[in-house]
Design goal:
The structure holds 2 protein chains of 2 kinds.
Chain A: H1 2-25, H2 29-35, H3 37-45, H4 75-82, E1 89-94, E2 100-103, H5 104-109, E3 113-120, E4 126-135, H6 136-143, E5 151-159, E6 165-171, H7 172-175, E7 181-186, E8 189-190, E9 200-202, E10 215-221
Parallel strand pairs in A: 1-10
Antiparallel strand pairs in A: 1-2, 3-4, 4-7, 5-6, 5-10, 7-8, 7-9
Chain B: E1 6-8, H1 12-36, E2 41-43, E3 53-61, E4 64-69, E5 72-75, E6 81-84, E7 90-93, H2 107-134, H3 148-158, H4 173-195, H5 199-204, H6 206-211, H7 215-242, H8 245-254, E8 256-258
Antiparallel strand pairs in B: 1-8, 2-3, 3-4, 4-5, 6-7
Classes of the chains: A alpha+beta, B alpha+beta.
Chain lengths: 246, 267
């Protein structure tokens, strides 16, 4: 009887106790500093190497979930939708020799690439779509980053319910990856307003939150610490990993 | 017979990695269930596909929890689907707050825990295996062809249909089977199926994701392997607790083990 009691109590206590201890430890900044080693190892040991699989058109998901904030509602964005983004300019600035302000027509006139790739959401689901647009590395090459540049930051029209801007960042190994795309089209049609029109980032080597929608400004910076929460992205500032390769 | 004699059974590396593994395993299960809660379904496919759904845990209505396995729905209200929100209330979520890290719904922190302890598990496993090979400790642990014919007699002994266990070494044939499966099949596969979920790892080693049947299928394998390891964990604790609890715990702390009536028979 004692033994049975021991088994029953040790098993449930192990799991519940683990959950309780973990929840308590989760409040500690020091614990998070230790746990952060996991992300550093992921970045060092997995990194960003190789090309993701490209699928056949028949693999495209019939429904592609939308998992972001609502379409921007500010006057400037609404005006652009009304004028078919005629006044839209994608700015590229920061540590670059040639700052850019590219219209949609100019972006469409650049070399276009198409990929059918899988989008892996941090929540756990996956969906496949065809993305068309300009390889980010072509735009970066055009802007000519200066020595000392460390990250490429994406500012967007996107805001959360409290007005906090959505932004993202990539290092150069991710930004120059041949499948990292500034997408202008999804499944052949121009990116819809609720999917990030007119330009969104699509980086299939990373989890979905890296693929910022409604990109308006690309900034090349030496480090991320001076931007917003300092962690390099909207979700990163709320505890998600900057390295979203896993 | 050497019954009662104390022997040095577990190396310092084996003992250290064992207890680190216990901590890592519990943290991984708890944080993994937290991560599962963010997309509480498993599909036997590459992309998400409701037509190939194997498991879904959800709340079809307020105060109702439902678990669907291969299309069969079970009412799991209070346990799964509609359960403890980790903050003293009830809510629609797959696994209850008392089992997850953190207790409340927080995917970011769940991932932080999971991705840290996954490496602890990997490093423990590598250290244990290298040390075990180098010191020949694994020789007595790994199932060999000669052990196959002893598996049934050993099971019969456990079922009390046979008086004596078949002669065996430090570990009996069923122990060897369990340890061999865990060390060389389940543990490597749960690590690989976890890595298969990584879009960057998938870019570097696409065949890994392919052998699991795609990304969502790998997520299903990862879950099933977790259940298998939990099954081992339960059996392990039961057997330890019913076969000289103090002796086993002591031996996994100090390394020193007191031989029982059937230990070392036939060595």
């Amino acid at each position: 009887m004692k033994r049975k009691l021991f088994i029953a109590s040790s098993l449930s206590a192990a799991l519940a106790g683990c959950g309780a201890i973990g929840t308590k430890l989760n409040e500690s900044d020091r614990m998070h500093a230790i746990l952060g080693a996991g992300e550093k190892l992921d970045l060092a040991l997995i990194g960003t190497h190789g090309l993701v699989r490209e699928y056949a058109a028949s693999d495209i998901s019939r429904e592609f979930p939308i998992n972001s904030f609502d379409t921007p509602t500010d006057a400037a964005y609404a005006h652009m939708i009304g004028s078919a983004f005629a006044s839209f300019r994608l700015r590229v600035s920061g540590m670059v020799d040639r700052p850019l302000a590219l219209s949609l027509a100019q972006l469409n006139a650049m070399r276009q690439t198409v990929q059918v790739t899988r989008h892996d959401c941090v929540e756990g689901w996956s969906a496949i779509a065809q993305w068309g647009g300009v390889a980010l590395r072509d735009i970066i090459a055009l802007a000519a980053p200066r020595k000392g540049a460390g990250f490429v930051v994406f500012h967007t029209f996107d805001r959360d319910a409290d007005g906090v801007p959505y932004y993202e960042s990539l290092d150069f190994s991710q930004a120059l990856h041949p499948q990292t795309l500034l997408a202008l089209r999804q499944n052949g049609a121009p990116i819809a307003p609720d999917r990030g029109a007119p330009v969104r980032l699509k980086i299939p080597t990373q989890l979905g939150y890296k693929s910022a929608k409604w990109v308006r400004h690309i900034e090349v910076v030496p480090s991320l610490s001076h931007l917003f929460g300092g962690k390099g992205g909207y979700w990163e500032d709320q505890g998600y990993q900057w390295y979203a390769g896993i | 017979m050497q019954t009662g004699k104390t022997v040095y059974r577990h190396s310092a590396v084996a003992r250290l990695t064992h207890w680190l593994f216990v901590i890592a395993f519990l943290a991984l299960v708890s944080s993994g269930l937290q991560i599962f809660n963010a997309a509480p379904y498993l599909d036997a496919s590459d992309k998400t596909d409701p037509a190939r759904r194997v498991l879904q845990i959800y709340a079809p209505a307020e105060n109702v929890g439902s678990t669907i396995v291969f299309g069969h729905a079970f009412n799991t209200t209070g346990w799964l689907g509609w359960t403890d929100d980790g903050m003293g209330g009830k809510t629609g979520r797959a696994f209850p707050g008392w089992i997850t890290i953190p207790s409340y719904q927080d995917l970011a922190d769940g991932r932080t825990w999971h991705l840290f302890f996954a490496w602890i598990m990997v490093f423990c496993g590598i250290a244990y295996l290298i040390w075990g090979f180098a010191r020949h400790d694994l020789r007595e642990l790994v199932l060999r062809p000669a052990d196959f014919r002893k598996l049934l007699p050993m099971q019969l002994y456990y079922l009390r249909l046979r008086k004596e266990p078949p002669p065996h070494g430090k570990y009996n044939p069923l122990q060897k089977l369990a340890y061999t499966l865990v060390l060389f099949v389940f543990a490597p596969l749960i690590v690989l199926s976890g890595l298969a979920l990584s879009p960057s790892f998938d870019a570097t080693f696409p065949w890994v994701t392919v052998i699991f049947g795609g990304r969502q299928f790998a997520r299903l394998w990862h879950f099933v392997l977790m259940l298998a390891l939990c099954g081992f964990f339960v059996m392990h604790v039961i057997l330890v607790a019913t076969n000289g609890l103090r002796n086993h715990i002591t031996s996994m702390i100090t390394g020193r083990y007191k031989l029982g009536a059937h230990d070392g028979v036939g060595v």
